[in-house]
């Protein structure tokens, strides 16, 4: 199976090849790339693959800068984008500083046009591209991140809340892409990369070689390997496969499905069986490969479809990500939002939620497990009546079912984790021995008697 076109993997590493005449990389031992050059490994590795070369004089030029127009051409060729003479001028490409367009050659006008139309790069202002200026480190990183996101969506994971990166938010446009590159290891081994690293300094060919070498390593790490046969579907988020000669349980990560016997559990299991049952699938791993139960933790691909995302998209699961395995969180959140908007599966409720969450107190005084009643959620009643059949769930699938107790509109009550006698002001989960709500964050779900998710609240 090959989800990732080989042309993209190979082409990405030639982004910085200048328009000078190049010699095949395998024939070169660049005299200006000495043994102590910090980018020697990256340069030699890419050259050994016959996918980069040096100048006609045999040198590589590791300290040479790259111009913006040159980089536009490189990235278009790298991504195997179609370049058609006549694409410029174009109202969507308003640059006035590219010079006279030679209709016999696409460089630089048509390459710049493709970059602009594909949202890979933008001008230095609304009407200027500044084609002959050297391109900065920040601009190169932004173009590479955008190019990967456009051609391989989901390959680069997003930063988590609160992350600022080594350079901080130094710019509203380039700061986030620099952080994303850092989070994904694309800036590893760049010499002098620290808080004092200058993002607006011209990026050299050696530096670009290192970043692109990091990209290649990342893509090869994520390249699909051998497919494995699915032996059985256990439930909506677990399958059994033969992996490396052994029968293994695989927990599909990034989502959670109803437990057996709960509403939509059977539908979730049936749909997962439709997606992967009896098929050959590819297992893609994140940071952690196994959980505490020694199950494999994986994103499961059946052809070009990732089963994890499809379960969310069909409304048969809810988002449930656990750090550090968060590579596809944004994609999963979008899939869940699509299902919610379309009212599919568990989101197909016919009426609103009769209660709302007022406040959450997940961190009890002292040891949570010994003070369960100081862990609580406060609700306000919106619709008078009994809540029997309605339930509350956490991310891990712990479930509390409301008793047949009648509330008036505007009543406020707390659901306490521990044990006690229910009153109009306090209901008790009667959990035994351990807390329910994670102090570091969790998701509260309110479900109707049919199992439809009426409300979610993440803290």
Report on this model:
The chain folds into three domains: about 5-220, no CATH class; about 230-345, OB fold (Dihydrolipoamide Acetyltransferase, E2P), CATH 2.40.50.90; about 355-459, Lamin Tail domain (Immunoglobulin-like, Sandwich), CATH 2.60.40.1260. Strand 17 and strand 18 form a beta hairpin. The chain has a five-stranded mixed beta barrel with strand order 1-2-3-6-5. Helix 2 (about 40-50) packs across helix 7, helix 3 (about 70-80) crosses helix 4 (about 110-115) and helix 9 packs parallel to helix 10 (about 330-340). The protein has helices at about 5-10, 40-50, 70-80, 110-115, 135-150, 175-185, 205-220, 265-275, 305-315, 330-340, and strands at about 230-235, 240-245, 245-250, 255, 280-285, 295-300, 305, 320, 355-360, 375-380, 385, 390-395, 400, 405, 410-415, 425-430, 445, 455-459. It has ten helices and 18 strands. The protein is elongated, with a radius of gyration of 27 Å. The protein has about 450 residues and is α+β, with helices and mostly antiparallel strands.
- How much is the radius of gyration in Å? 27 Å
Task: Kindly name the structural category.
Answer: alpha+beta
How widely separated are the two ends?
39 Å
Counted up, domains total 3
**Unreliable parts:** 1-11, 16-28
Sequence of strands across the biggest β-sheet: 1-2-3-6-5
Rounded mean pLDDT score: 83
Q: What pattern of helices and strands is seen along the backbone? A: HHHHHHHEEEEHEEEHEHEEEEEEEEEE
Overall helicity: 10-25%
Determine the number of helices (DSSP H or I, runs of at least 4 residues).
Answer: 10
Using the alpha-carbon principal axes, give the shape: elongated
Largest sheet: 5 strands, mixed, barrel
Strand content: 15-25%
Number of strands: 18
